Amino acid sequence: MWIELDTDADVGSVKGDLQRLGLWTQSVLSEAGRPLGFWVLEHSAHVDSDAVRAVEGVARVGVGDSLHPRVDAQGGRACVVAGVTLGANAPILLAGPCSIESEAQIFRAAEMVREAGGRFLRGGAFKPRTSPYAFHGHGIPALRWLRDAADRHDLGVVTEVLGEADVEPVAEVADILQVGARNMQNFALLAQVGAVGKPVLLKRGMAASVQEWLLAAEHLLAAGSGHVVFCERGIRGFDTVTRNVLDLASVALMRHVHQQVVIVDPSHAVGRRDLVVPMCAAALAAGADGLLVEVHPNATVARSDGPQALGRDLLADVASVVGKYAAAGRPAQATGTRS
Ligand code: PEP
Ligand code: MN
Fold first, then answer.
1. pLDDT tens digits along 22-67
2. pTM higher than the cut 0.85
3. Which ligand number lies closest to the CA of residue 205?
4. From the alpha carbon of 203, which atom of ligand 1 is closest?
5. Among 17, 225, 290, 311, which is disulfide-ready with 194 (CB 3.0 to 4.6 Å)?
6. Domain 2-62 fold
7. From atom 6 of ligand 1, which residue's Cα is the shortest distance away?
8. CA geometry: angle at 230 spanning 319 and 194, to 5°?
């Protein structure tokens, strides 16, 4: 059961009244620390929802059979992080190299991202690679370079947590922790990442249904994550002309039906730089709240995902697509989803 508070409720007194009814609760706060409401814990007494509704200070009581009540509760709410609002009117650009290859490379990338109006610098210090012989990232030293480069250009940081041992060092530098496609259903990792309490960018697994994606987010929120931002990065198809299939219908569903903050990563979806800009436009038209794109100051020497990395010119094209949507405001809710 979800209990939403009136904005001027006396939180202590509501909690006390609920306890007298036999309800044990866990508080939910807004990003600004304002109490929003309570989750009723499992071992509580069974109480009629009308009795809960009658408690002074209670605005709304939710008793549904949704499998992801915490995801539902964050629906319609923006994610405010590092002074940036994801899920407001204007789309946000998050960009950076696939891997952090050197201090110089990430500083040059950060400059490119800032020049394009990006708000977050992305880059992998811990890289999931299909081959055990490929470059797996520089690890902890790269996290420091990433933070310093982002700070130099007033950018937030998003970077991937690959394993449980990385949670602590990544949480120290990242504003948003990324859980990659390959780890979307690594439930032990989700519990640890969620417990950090920071926002998480949850990539959709390459063969994951939307329901599985929502439930993975529920794991993160149940463990304490501040907000889960969904990231569609393409799912496996039969054709190899593009790396994956960019499932924009799911983006529209997440945004218009589930009211979630959703980001699109066209880079991993198409795997080739010539298709990234049109897919950025398509993603924003579908309702995405932002774009996560890979860039490189010199893609010909990139140690991972070079073919999809954008240089300055294509990144400027992405920036102009973002600018168009920022000026026009986010697309109206799709008519079919209006009740
Ligand atoms: C990445 O963002 O660099 C990455 C590895 O992405 P994905 O998990 O979507 O493959
Ligand atoms: Mn990559």
1. 999 988 887 678 888 998 987 889 899 899 999 999 998 887 778 9
2. yes
3. 1
4. 9
5. 225
6. Alpha-Beta Plaits (3.30.70)
7. 180
8. 125
